[in-house]
Amino acid sequence: MTKRVAAQLGLVSTLVYILLLGAMVGSTTPTFAASVTQDTSRHLYDRVMEEFKQGDYEAALAGFKFFIELHKTSGLAANAQYWIGECQYRLGRYQEALNSFSNVRSFDPMSQKLAASAFKIGQTYSMLGDYYRARMTFDEVLDHYPNGPEAALARKAIEAINVKTPSTTTLSVTNVMNVMR
User: Model's pTM, two decimal places?
Assistant: First the structure.
């Protein structure tokens, strides 16, 4: 049995376990049910994160999507949405990644993943060759999260964009001005 198949079987068995626990929760007291649901959601999230750490981005992508289907209101839903974007990014599905990173806020407007999501949006625009939007996004990271680690990364990314395309900003502003005429 290959390592990937074994990992997927492990994920499937975890998901079945969680579904069975979810079915049992319906017949318990509300306090216990909330506790079991929280433990169950954390267990699933951690299991899927292991898939990601092992580099099985397809399995992790499926797992995080499944997590959100089961636990939309969980405190971990915004994190799972971020990791969906990260999986898509690593698989080269940049347009999908942009959408996923942009949706993190819809799960939790105060999520700890907002700064990381904003930075990844900038990186994704860079990968798509849209350096103007990348630069704008990195500037937003600097404005909204000036003291976070993402700000330092955004500064480096801006420097890299400036080296790659020293006239990108001028050309883009000129293009915008021409469109406005």
Answer: 0.73
